[in-house]
Fold this sequence. Notes:
transferase (chains A, B), Rossmann fold, amino-acid biosynthesis (chains A, B), AB_hydrolase_fold (chains A, B), Homoserine O-acetyltransferase (chains A, B), acyltransferase (chains A, B)
Amino acid sequence: MNPSLLPPPGGHLDIPIGDVVTEAGASIPGTRLRLHAFYDATCPEPAATDRPVLLVEHALTGDGDVAQWWPGMVGPGCPLDTNRYLVLCANVIGGCSGSTGPGSLHPDGGYWGSRFPGISIRDQVSVEKRLLDVLEIPRVHAVIGASMGGARALEWALMYPGSVNAALVIAVSARASAWQIGIQSSQIRVIEADQAWHGGDYYEAGMGPVWGLGQARRIAHLTYRGELEVDERFGTDPQQGEDPYGPYRRPDQRFAVESYLDRQAQKLQSRFDAGSYVTLTDALNRHDVGRGRGGMNAALGRCEVPTMVVGVDTDILYPFHQQEHLSRNLGNFIGLSKITSPTGHDGFLIEGRQMGPILTKFLVKADLLAAGE
Amino acid sequence: MNPSLLPPPGGHLDIPIGDVVTEAGASIPGTRLRLHAFYDATCPEPAATDRPVLLVEHALTGDGDVAQWWPGMVGPGCPLDTNRYLVLCANVIGGCSGSTGPGSLHPDGGYWGSRFPGISIRDQVSVEKRLLDVLEIPRVHAVIGASMGGARALEWALMYPGSVNAALVIAVSARASAWQIGIQSSQIRVIEADQAWHGGDYYEAGMGPVWGLGQARRIAHLTYRGELEVDERFGTDPQQGEDPYGPYRRPDQRFAVESYLDRQAQKLQSRFDAGSYVTLTDALNRHDVGRGRGGMNAALGRCEVPTMVVGVDTDILYPFHQQEHLSRNLGNFIGLSKITSPTGHDGFLIEGRQMGPILTKFLVKADLLAAGE
Lengths: 373, 373
């Protein structure tokens, strides 16, 4: 790797990768990606730039700061051991955490807004491949991702088998299911219906479709969590000081779970851009490893990269049968792990005590494979 | 039963039941319920009014016309045999198909609109008990309902055990789960956000929150269907003549499943009132057999009415473990049946070949119980 492009440990660097043309033929000139790096700089041997690279792929509303959203997974002595590996994670194109997206400035002036094209998971990956080329990293030790990051990890294995030693694909499927497209497109509809959306060109107005983004998140969050876990926490409890059982229904008299969802909405509203949410949700809708490759199972069957699959037993959004399907069809399948948790899809974030050993097991396999054993 | 209040066979009658006070203390003066009746009038013995009554409870957007929404289940020789039974079904209070609801005229002028109170499932049932009193029906042979109708059937058994010989409770739970409240309150939010909602007082404006109702239905429909069934039908197919994979995301370039959900939305928009949808969705949120009864399991344990439970194995909205929970806790439990279907919650409507024999089995048991065997 080019040492001059290595971000400081735990920090990030914005790296220009030039002009991008999407799978569907649209242009994104002057694309930049924000790259985060994690490595223990106090550990002199091997030098960070000589360590095997673990490329982590973040989920829809994640970003490059893996240590923040995957606590306990990355660091010295952690499963993604920063004494041994150089852990890299780039904010996705279309996102809003430093990489080029709808909220970025357009080279011709103003914000990208509605001029930002539709992107696919493959676009996200081909842009990242360009980043690795700029970084002079010909091959990564492993690519690891969950949810939308899992879709990218899978496409990495299919698109650039020569650049990836092994892949860990977590809580995702070979393609969007119709149910996912349905619930995801409903979220997009709600954002588009917000009067502040302005067709996606709201960035100069000073006020965005915050209401729509919050409503989308409320719906999405219920697909990220297990229904048993949500019920155990909130049941039919009223929110403290409010009475949803009163003589007249009132929006300010809520159940505890409504207040919880409102908090999830507020948290996302304060940290994420609606335009990026729409762009990346649409990318998830476009996810299909079979497109242009003779179908889903044929594409999976040709996968040369040793790939391990992980799912959560109570996942509503990406049900476990989808990971079983990947396992049955991947050409170079090296194992399936199940996270057992009432928490649903978010189990990969929450169940660190299960996720950690799975990462370790995967890296033991990846190390053995790299050593030719 | 009072023969002068018997609707014509397959027809209906609007029956005044007087002033209602809700569980939470609000008044609904001059309440009327629209009663539908199904009986074979060509079969002279016993006379329709002397036949054992089967009281059917419809679901959220259903109505009293059982023969329409439950095809093949009611009629001569059908599981709900109109030669043997008098099948009655009333449109629920708060609905929009003939019974008093937010779209009805208020005795003080104008439409009820926001003056219509919050109602609970128990309110729906106590109002129906008033109807049976007016009809001079002291006791029904069986009460049968699914989904919101199942919640009513369950409350019938708990509230009026002296008036019900047996109950069939289909695809519902002992109380709303937090997940249900979450997804249902999200639907209410979308309707409330429609500019045409006007706080619920839109009836005189000539235009209602049709957009919001449609968006709510899109979301709801995905909870009524199984994800495997939706995926088998639509997968990632584009809608014919549209290209959701194009260079720019456009709302008019849809996946097939989006078009399908749009059709579901349009169908409901043309036949249902948004105010009723909000009122009845809120009633589902309030469903809790344990409220004021020492908790859910204590309430179920005291159930004296012989009750049979039915669920669908792929139900997302009312998962089968909820029917297993009812079965473990009902004081007078007489059986659990599982509908096996990829269709999810709507399986009780769609899988007639399974639902029919379950209804027949239940009525055999109910007949034996009534005969004291």
